[in-house]
Design a protein that fits this description.
By secondary structure, the protein is an alpha+beta fold. 20% of the residues lie in helices and 20% in strands. The strands form nine sheets. An eight-stranded parallel beta barrel has the order 14-15-18-19-22-23-24-25. A six-stranded antiparallel beta sheet has the order 26-27-28-33-30-31, covered by helices on one side. It has a five-stranded antiparallel beta sheet with strand order 4-3-7-13-10, with no helix packed on it. A hairpin with a 6-residue loop joins strand 3 and strand 4. It is elongated and about 90 Å long.
Length: 716
């Protein structure tokens, strides 16, 4: 007996279980007909095909009162196949619902996934009649019910946030304390060993590399590789099920709830700028076959795509239904999955109106006024690959940004490049030149030295050149200019002097990051001294190149301890996580400014000294007398005084310590010249000299809130 089919409703889009039946709704502006295909529980056999006869406001819909959660389905969409007019309909291709909440199976590559056959010329595309259903993932109807109980978002203030960027699979794939069936999964990520590791570091937010359902590129699969990073989305509502031990979206929700119970936020790295369907020669998996003209930015010749992403296509953010798709997806992940924020990959591509990046574009306007999305953490990767796409500092109020200028300045300075002390000073103090002009705060700057894309911290100090041969592209892929330094030997070495210098450089880079104003972001594995063997583009390496190795030797453990102590120091002292920019002006009742920049003679830097090309050393005095801030109860925030001494030169410099009317001694909390980064036990008189070693960062403290030598932090 055929299934009962009712008219249903055009909203909400997707497959919606209401407790009695399932409503199906699919938008297509230019389609002529739509068929809903139902499959057996294993997705191998099509058991029924239903024509969606109802169409309301360009939405095809129906209601099946006899269907239940777990049902597998897909769509076939009919319309013209006229690439020269922008249309690429082909009913021989089973298509993924853009609003599918779960996908079952992976793409099994064959020529049948392509909606055309290539003729004598590369652009001569003929209609293809091969059916691709057997090699397509199937959409699954889900029951959203989940017991959230008293789950509460941590809502950590931005200025107290510490972000840890990780890959769900790579984080736990080799963890010896996690049961093997859970390694590489959401459940493994939320396990006690991982949570305790994050808490011991002081992490307040995990930023998950893409967990939207994605596709492994055919080229990579045929090479025995896969799209490990996942920046190849095909489903903006469905969590990637390869990371699920149970095959259920409830596992993802349990992970979020577990992190929340430990005060850790969950931020998703989302890829809304393009899809896995690629350029005009790519496969037809979903959007292209549902409505190519609506979903994608087409070139003047509609056979081709505008490509601001380097991935073959760009979603059409000028179409209201595409904007709706993205906003519906964002709200779904916040309201249904309880995530705490998003990092938008190649965010400039989302803000393009016509061709230019417009910070007042429709997407940013909609985000700004949305009562749900505007209240979570929003992070932009403020660039894309198109003309004018580099937009660091130009996103509007309410947004934070990956600060690429911070990364470049800190790397170049510790690499030994001269004449950068002015640039470094701006980056250490929150990049007011980028973010103060429109009322944003220091925490608009997401500071990082390394991220998933590029060298790990260990490789940054071990390689001058990238070594990406394993990617199968003859080492042509990946960034060529890494601002890295191998400390004298390329790659692995047993030379104790080189190893000691590398360890010191890691401490310098990490300490710079954690003592800077703004929000620090750590790359997962850097604290473990993880190396990728010089691969700076390990996007396709689902193996030991990318998986974190939790077996630490004595040197690795020492660096991990250093990272923990540095994060504890940052957490204990509000002067390193200010909510307002330094003013560089005198403090009432004091003979000193809130910040002062010093040369090695202990005097304030002159304009001429800032521009010296050979300058590689400076001091930063931070007064804790009055931070011009209040706590949550309106009480003034005060701290101790700090002096940061930075020397990227190879020679020792005798740095004169300032007094500023106080004879109190300075205590050394941290000196990266020492093997463990600990400060010396001596007191250093104000007005005296500190022997600042070459390629070293030193932090000294003068107590205001305590009368004795400070306990805890790095000096303990």
């Amino acid at each position: 007996m055929p299934l009962a089919v009712w008219p249903g409703r055009p909203y909400p889009l997707g497959a919606t279980w209401d407790g009695e039946g399932v409503n199906f709704a699919l938008f297509s502006e230019h389609a002529e007909d739509v068929e809903l295909c139902l499959f057996d529980p294993k997705g191998r056999r099509e058991v029924e095909r239903i024509i969606l006869r109802e169409r309301t406001d360009q939405v095809f819909h129906c209601y099946l009162p006899e269907l239940r959660p777990g049902q597998l389905y897909g769509y076939r969409v009919f319309g013209p196949y006229r690439p020269e007019a922008g249309h690429r309909f082909n009913p021989n291709k089973l298509l993924i619902d853009p609003y599918a909440k779960a996908l079952v199976g992976q793409v099994k590559w064959s020529d049948a996934h392509f909606a055309y056959r290539i003729g004598h010329k590369r652009e001569d595309l003929a209609f293809d009649r091969r059916d691709n259903a057997s090699g397509m993932p199937k959409c699954r109807v889900v029951d959203p019910a989940f017991t959230w109980g008293d789950d509460c978002r941590p809502e950590v203030p931005w200025h107290e946030t510490v972000i840890y960027e990780l890959h769900v699979r790579g984080m736990t794939r080799l963890h010896p304390l996690i049961p093997p069936p859970l390694r590489g999964t959401y459940a493994g990520l939320a396990s006690e060993p991982v949570v305790e590791h994050l808490k011991s570091l002081g992490v307040t937010a995990v930023e998950l590399m893409p967990v939207h359902a994605f596709v492994d590129d055919r080229r990579l699969v045929e090479m025995g590789l896969r799209n490990y990073w996942g920046y190849n989305s095909i489903g903006f509502f469905a969590p990637e099920m390869r990371y699920s031990a149970t095959g259920s979206i409830k596992e993802f929700k349990t992970m979020v709830k577990t992190f929340h119970s430990h005060g850790i936020e969950v931020i998703l790295d989302v890829v809304y700028n393009h899809t896995a369907e690629g350029n005009h020669l790519g496969p037809t998996l979903s959007f292209r076959g549902i409505d190519n003209m609506a979903y994608y930015r087409l070139a003047a010749d509609p056979r081709y795509y505008m490509d601001y992403t380097g991935c073959g296509n760009t979603l059409n953010m000028m179409h209201p239904r595409v904007l709706q798709l993205i906003m519906d997806s964002l709200r779904y992940w916040v309201q249904e999955m309880h995530v705490d924020g998003f990092r938008f990959d190649l965010a400039s591509a989302l803000a393009r109106e016509l061709h230019a990046v417009d910070k007042l574009g429709a997407f940013l306007d909609i985000i700004h006024q949305d009562p749900v999305i505007s209240r979570v953490k929003l992070i932009a990767e403020p660039w894309d690959l198109g003309e004018g796409g580099y937009q660091v500092g130009n996103f509007p109020v309410g947004w934070t940004e990956w600060n690429g200028k911070y990364r470049d300045a800190v790397r170049a300075f510790w690499q030994g490049e001269g004449g950068l002390i002015g640039e470094l000073a701006s980056r250490l103090t929150g990049s007011s030149d980028l973010y103060a002009h429109n009322g944003r705060r220091p925490y608009a700057s997401i500071n990082f030295v390394t991220c998933h894309d590029g060298f790990s911290l260990q490789d940054l100090v071990s390689y001058n050149h990238k070594h990406n041969e394993a990617n199968g592209e003859d080492n042509r892929d990946g960034e060529h200019h890494n601002r890295s330094w191998n400390c004298g030997v390329e790659g692995p070495t047993d030379d104790p002097q080189v190893l000691a210098l590398r360890a010191r450089q890691k401490r310098n880079l990490l300490a710079s990051l954690l003592l800077s104003q703004g929000v620090p972001m750590l790359r997962a594995g850097d604290e473990l001294s993880h190396s990728q063997g010089g691969n700076n583009n390990a996007y396709c390496q689902d193996n030991a190149v990318s998986w974190l190795d939790w077996k630490l030797d004595a040197e690795d453990q020492a660096f991990l301890d250093f990272v923990r102590r540095m994060l504890a120091l940052r957490r204990e002292h509000p002067i390193f996580r200010r909510r307002r920019f330094f003013q560089g002006r005198p403090i009432h009742g004091e003979d000193v400014k809130d910040i002062a920049w010093l040369n090695p003679d202990g005097r304030e830097m002159t304009d001429l000294e800032w521009d010296q090309h050979f300058a590689r050393c400076l001091g930063v005095y931070l007064s804790g007398a009055e931070l011009d801030e209040t706590d949550e109860r309106g009480r003034p925030v005060r701290d101790d005084d700090f002096l940061l001494l930075i020397n990227a030169h190879h020679d020792v410099i005798a740095f004169k310590l300032p007094a500023y009317g106080r004879e109190d001694a300075w205590f050394c909390l941290m000196d990266t010249a020492f093997e463990r980064g600990l400060g010396s036990d001596g007191r250093y008189a104000a007005g005296g000299e500190y022997p600042l070693q070459g390629r070293t960062l030193v932090l000294l403290l003068r107590p205001r809130l305590r009368s004795a030598r400070p306990e805890g932090g790095l000096a303990s």
